[in-house]
General stress protein 14
Amino acid sequence: MKTLIVVIHPNIDESKINKRWISEVEKHPELYTVHNLYQSYKDGIIDVEKEQRLIEQHDKIILQFPLYWFNSPPLLKQWLDEVFTYGWAYGSSSGHKLRGRKFALAVSAGIKEEDFSRSGRYHHSLQEILLPFEMTAKYVEADYQPFYAFYGAEYEVSPQQLENSAKGYISYLQSF
């Protein structure tokens, strides 16, 4: 089965990192399905059954998004609330559609990696900030994997950094 990459970026055309990651992933359509939530749901009305069927067709799920105010873009929270429903994702004998599926995050962070540390500017690691996603995965019995991150997206990103990040993303996806 292929890996489903759910892209949640409200302004993908202006993105450097996420847009480049997508273009690299799209070179491998036999391995990855790219699903852009903001393009699919411009009106904010999510087709829950369609989303659930899409997930069921994949054994690995990546949520790819830029960090927004130390969280995700709002459509991701809405998507999780509406798609990961009782009786499908958890809570009943048939509610385990995510059980055992590999689940991970690919995150672009505007600030530098050293700022995400006990001694850094924000006194918390990115792993700590992303803990609610890990807990969500554990709650639905998915197999949560370490995240992939790009730090410093707010700063000048060189073409070489961008390329290294895109190639690193593919290596990360292949390692799952």
Summary: The chain has a mean pLDDT of 94. The chain has seven helices and six strands. The helical segments are 17-25, 37-40, 48-56, 74-83, 126-129, 131-139, 159-175.
